[in-house]
Amino acid sequence: MPAVVVIGGQWGDEGKGRVVDFHARYCSVIARYSAGTNAGHTIINNKGKFALHLVPAGIFYGDKTCVIGNGVVIDPDGLLTELSMLHERGVDTARLLISNRAHVIMPWHRVIDSADEELRGGNAIGTTGTGTGPAFHDKVARIGIRVADIVDQQRFPERLREVLDYKNRVITSLYQRPALDFDEILAEYTAFGDRLRPHVADTTSIVQEAHWRGEQILLEGAQGSLLDLDSGTYPYVTSSVPASVASGAGIGIGLGPTAIDRVVGVYKAYQTRVGNGPMPTELFDENASTLREGGGGVPGTAEYGTTTGRARRVGWFDGVLARYTSRLNGVTSVALTRLDSLTGFDSVKICVAYELDEERITTLPASLDDAQRLVPIYEELPGWSQDVSDVRNLGDLPAEARQYVRRIEQLVDAPIDMISVGPQRDQAIVTRDIFGGRL
Ligand code: GDP
Ligand code: IMO
Ligand code: MG
Q1: Which of 7, 161, 376, 413 could pair with 221 as two cysteines, CB 3.0-4.6 Å apart?
Q2: Do residues 180 and 292 share a domain?
């Protein structure tokens, strides 16, 4: 059976974890294919509330194979903490597999992440500080350390020596930071390797075999398309290689493009962004604080980052960017999240075009300067005041909310098959099957 990819259509935090947790029941393999601990996926289900950074959101079902693919960069300490937390809370992690080809976040990556941000000064990206970016830089520079290296007690010291000698020269002379200690890192990472070894596997072959047996595979994206290295708001993007857009999924897990036939685009009913960079529909008025605190939606779901706790920037839904990312990813189904959060506004706005130098445009300019000068052109729609968090049928939504959803559907140019009206697993209106009816 062809695989399905779930991607973020905005700047991340659209609710991908929540959407994957809902649909994982229909799949046998759930796999992450890109990013690192910079990702933060919040899931609320029958087992409680969880923040996952590396473990795929299928882990709660117990009978699913969960894979951290070759395209992910792994912070072993963070992963082990995540696994302990899941264990303590009664979640079985025995079926988690980690690719031996995945790269490892090393101590110098965190040093370089913060030093680079300091050097950028006023142009800082606002990274998560997790060392994820520098780990991807090293992957591309062919000086990365992979999971296969840290689990190989014989060869690891030699590889570490080679890379650390180089990195210490960079850290001390370029960044003027203290050198890192070989013995300390060797001991720490050898211990990490020992603890992770039971999960480490050639996941490429395992996923390929599952695919050829006809099993349903779900590929869980991280971040959002507008943070993508090639297609996002460069340089205010993340460094994932493979891409965070759907085209990266095959590379990051070891499948060819013909193995994937459905792409679920997760879009929040408004925009959020963490960190710096252009955001044409950003709000700074009282609507911003209302939206940031979760609007009139389910209490306790305010917009603060899952990974860093930073307040998320908020704004009205950007239909120009939504159409751009829908086409970029080949979206076949949309999951629209947090519709409940828009409850209580007198009216709601959707950006349908921009004005740039007195011209109307409907594309994202490549130039950062132009992207920062875009003036949104809005359509204003009537708001609604009824609580929608208990609605499970489209027809039971207030007419104004349905009108809002339909307008977004036209702009995104793909069917909205799921509308999430709360953070809990079953707080959703499902109008069509995201698997294209084959289940
Ligand atoms: P991800 O990174 O795309 O998985 O998204 P995050 O988990 O970082 O951020 C999404 C936030 O919205 C989390 O706090 C979720 O619990 C919450 N959430 C997801 N769907 C809904 C929804 O429909 N309504 C409300 N109120 N919260 C939601
Ligand atoms: P999920 O999977 C939101 C942002 C950071 C920063 C930029 C670069 O939860 O949607 P990095 O640490 O990657 O070098 O930071 O990218 N960023 C995210 N924002 N959600 C994410 O992941 C993000 N991953 C990275 O805030 O602006
Ligand atoms: Mg997140």
Answers
A1: 7
A2: no
Query: What residue numbers bound the domain in which 288 lies?
Result: 3-90+202-430
Compute, in angstroms, the gap from residue 237 CA to the centroid of ligand 2.
8
Test site for ligand 2: of 18, 34, 38, 109, most ligand atoms within 8 A of the Cβ? 38
| Residue 375 contacts residue 410 (beta carbons within 8 Å) | no
| 216 and 166 inside one domain | no
Residues annotated as part of the active site: 13, 41
Task: Give the domain CATH number at 332.
Answer: 3.90.170.10
Token code pair at residue 281: 């529909």
Q: In whole angstroms, what is the distance from residue 7 CA to residue 334 CA?
A: 10
Q: Given the CA of residue 224, which atom of ligand 1 is nearest to it?
A: 3
- pLDDT tens per residue, range 159-177: 999 999 999 999 999 999 9
Q: Residues lining ligand 1, CB < 6 A? A: 8, 12-18, 40-42, 44, 294, 297-298, 301, 306, 337-338, 340-341, 420-423
End residue of a domain, out of 177, 199, 221: 199
pLDDT in tens, 362-403: 999 999 999 999 999 999 999 999 999 999 999 999 999 999
Q: Which two tokens stand for residue 70?
A: 């070759």
Same domain, yes or no: 224 and 321? yes
HSE (CB half, 13 Å, CA atoms) of 81? 10
Q: Do 193 and 209 sit in the same domain of this protein?
A: no
Domain shared by 218 and 281, yes or no? yes
**What's the rounded Cα separation, in Å, for the pair 381 and 391?**
21
